[in-house]
Amino acid sequence: MTLIDLANPTRFLNLTSRVLPWLAAATAILLLIGLYQAAMAPDDYQQGATVKIMFVHVPNAWLAMFVWGVMSVAALGTLVWRHPLADVAAKAAAPIGAAFTFLALVTGSLWGRPMWGTYWEWDARLTSVLILFLMYLGLIALWRAVEDPSRAARAAAVLTLVGALNLPIIKFSVDWWNTLHQPASVLRMGGSSLDRSFLIPLLVMAVAFSLLFVTLHLAAMRNEILRRRVRSLQMMQASRRSA
Amino acid sequence: MTALAALIRRDIRIALRVGGGALIGVLFFLTVVVLMPFAVGPDLALLTRLGPAILWLGALLASLLTLDRLFMADHEDGSLDLIVMSRTPLELTCAAKALAHWLAAGVPLILATPVLGLLLNLDATATAAVALTLLAGTPALTFTGMIGAALAVTLHRGGLLLAVLVLPLSIPVLIFGVAASQAAISGPLAFGTPFSILCALSLVSLVIGPFAAAASLRHGLD
Amino acid sequence: MRLSGSGVRCVRGGREVFSGLDFSASAGEALAVTGRNGSGKTSLLRLIAGLLTPEGGSIGLEGGTGELTLPEQAHLLGHRDALKPALSVLENLAFWREFLGGEAFDLAECLAAVGLDHAAQLPAAFLSAGQRRRLSIARLLAARRPIWLLDEPTNALDTSGQAMFAALMGDHLARGGLIIAATHAPLGIAARELRIGDAA
């Protein structure tokens, strides 16, 4: 099984139809284990039970950035290698990435509510994620604005790559803007200093959400391939007869 | 009436399908509002105070930019000729097109207001006040903007010219929309006074807009 | 029913296109407007459709339906096809039938008459140029109006399409309709010729 084999959409459909049930099952089991472990994890001495939002928030935030990475690779695939599945992958990933980003924002603001007293604080991290969300929505709007998917693909690929290059700059600017205006008053998760009782469920959840992404992405790619087939069948039907 | 209902249905359907502009307006609204704090700083107290003004400016720009295509698309594909030749009075047709545009592009802006209110740290009352003033005021923006859209077709220019033509006309709406929201949030004025004037502005534009747009289309087609 | 113009003068962008033009056509008659490019064939149709106002002279209709104006009794089939690519073929046609009003004709029959019945549910974006023209022609059938103003109607149509449209025009004339067509190519039906723009 090489990349060349996968380039054939029919083979891709055959392969994924066999793989998807297993992936879905693995995702469900891991999610259950992760949620159970998260529920069993001890409360934080400062934040109480709210700390458990972290187990959902952090994986979503990771995936929000990871999916843009996936789309950037797919964009290179479209522009450089002209891989037939690349733009399908890019298009299918965008709404999923937007959903993860949205969930990261919602869980973040729910987590922030007891910490800050408001649902939203123009905190550097949250703001960066919000901008990422806007960029996802813009990308989806671009896909929707052009009727012919192969024409939209190149424009979307360029935008994705520009976005990927710009994201660090935006992140840096937002950090600078934020520290200029207010000292970092927000809680900072202490990275590797996390207790093992938090770290293990968090890692399980991260793997579970990544599997969830792979499952959803493959399913969305199948839908997109089928949608394009319907489209070309319709075009064939339109030109079939005119007498 | 079936003719007008058919026109409204068609315009909404086109706005919501692939290539339609209904949701791009909301996205623009969201982006404009998110940009504001980067200009004025993340001070929540300040943002709360500026909130209604930011939301109103965002809604004004968003509804204006989507108006650009109101008649232009129909002009480009020849539909406008047939619309002018129909048995329905052109004034009613214009009103129906503006109504369809408001339903497809204006109402989503109002629905997005609570989320944006959250970002600007507005409390429930303030958000409700802004949403209510937008509900009363955005029809005025659409129906006044329609005049500019009709002029843009006959002059074969769109975009920025439309904004330059229409923005001055929408100043009263902006004044009383923001004033009513501020009155509901902090006083000291009673909410009713500016809000009534806002409603009156909407009603006036409901009458003037279609006539002016129809007159402009009738004399400007070639 | 009789459509006539006398001494019609047309000015576009400060340039006189034609002047002193007289023409007339009665029910059941087709008028083929010919002339070189830029002689004002399209402008004449748009004058009759009420989309342009003549600088001089007058255009009138005698014996039309009740209080309807001339443009309200006319169909214009122009270069631009008034189709929305985002809507399906059937939705496009249904909209124009409802919006233009009049008697309700069966849309499926109209589509079958122009050979588009197989594409009714497909988006209009998938149609070729000739098929778009056929769909525009179906509009003339879906909402009946006695006067057809046709601007190069056979453009983009293949041979079978032209024959189909000639038959439809024949039916329309037989029902007492009236056709004014700006054209370079023969229409395929008996038509009186009106040459314009030679004097200039």
Brief digest:
The complex is a heterotrimer of chains A (243), B (222) and C (200). By secondary structure, chain B is mostly helical.
List keywords for this structure.
heterotrimer, A: mainly alpha, 79% helix, B: 10 helices, 84% helix
Describe the structure.
- The complex is a heterotrimer of chains A (243), B (222) and C (200).
- Chain A has helices at 3-6, 9-40, 54-81, 86-116, 124-145, 149-181, 196-238.
- Chain A is built from seven helices and no strands.
- The longest helix of chain A has 43 residues, at 196-238.
- In chain A, helix 3 (54-81) packs across helix 5 (124-145) and helix 3 crosses helix 6 (149-181).
- Chain A has 243 residues and is mainly α.
- In chain A, 79% of the residues lie in helices and 0% in strands.
- Chain B is an all-alpha fold and 222 residues long.
- Helix content of chain B is 84%, strand content 0%.
- Chain B has ten helices and no strands.
- The longest helix of chain B is centred in the middle third of the chain and has 32 residues, at 124-155.
- Chain B starts with a helix and ends with a helix.
- The longest helix of chain C has 16 residues, at 159-174.
- In chain C, 46% of the residues are buried.
- With 200 residues, chain C is of the alpha/beta class.
- Chain C has helices at 41-48, 89-100, 107-113, 129-142, 159-174; strands spanning 2-12, 15-26, 30-34, 56-62, 74-77, 147-151, 178-182, 192-195.
- At the B-C interface, helix 1 and helix 5 of B face helix 2 of C.
* First-to-last CA distance of chain B: 28 Å
List low-confidence stretches of chain A.
Answer: 183-192
The percent of residues in helical segments of chain B reads over 70%
Tell the overall outline of chain B: elongated
Number of helices of chain B: 10
Could you give a short account of the major beta sheet of chain B? none
Mean pLDDT level of chain B: 87
As a percent range, the share of helical residues of chain A equals over 70%
Q: In this structure, how is the largest beta sheet of chain A organized?
A: none
Spans of chain B of 5+ residues with little confidence (pLDDT < 50)?
Answer: none
Largest interface, with counts of residues having CB < 8 Å to the other chain, equals: B-C, 27 and 29 residues
